[in-house]
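Hey team,

Filing this mostly as a record. A colleague (T.K.) asked me to run one chain through the structure pipeline before their review meeting, and I want the input and output archived in the tracker in case anyone asks later how it was produced. No errors, nothing strange. Just documentation.

Input sequence:
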Amino acid sequence: QAKYLAQIILVGAQVVGRAFMRALRQEFAGLVSPASQAAADARGRAERPQSAAASRIIGISLQEAQQILNVSSLNPEEIQKNYDHLFKVNDKSVGGSFYLQSKVVRAKERLDEELRIQARGDKEKGPKAET
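Output structure:
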């Protein structure tokens, strides 16, 4: 009976070991579930090409920039008001963080770029609508 018990323990350890190794291989291979891959693709398609390019250049997404500056819409006055406040609060001379101040500046640059892209798009759509 001790022989059978040892065999059960050995087989169980092999099963667990194989499962663990398979999980490690998948992790190192960078495999992702089809659902998470589909979600990432949808996020990529949701952004217009120019907006996606701006995200890559500035290094911050539109949504992240809106979260940093605490704005829900692309309202230039609200963006400027929140930017001024957050920039002043995070000034190093008043005990703020240069890192956070830099994030605020990058967020403002990203939102300004998005506003320029939208203005350019509106300008291009204008003449086409009249013809």
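Quick notes for T.K.: The two ends are 91 Å apart (CA to CA). Residues 98-130 form the longest helix (33 residues).
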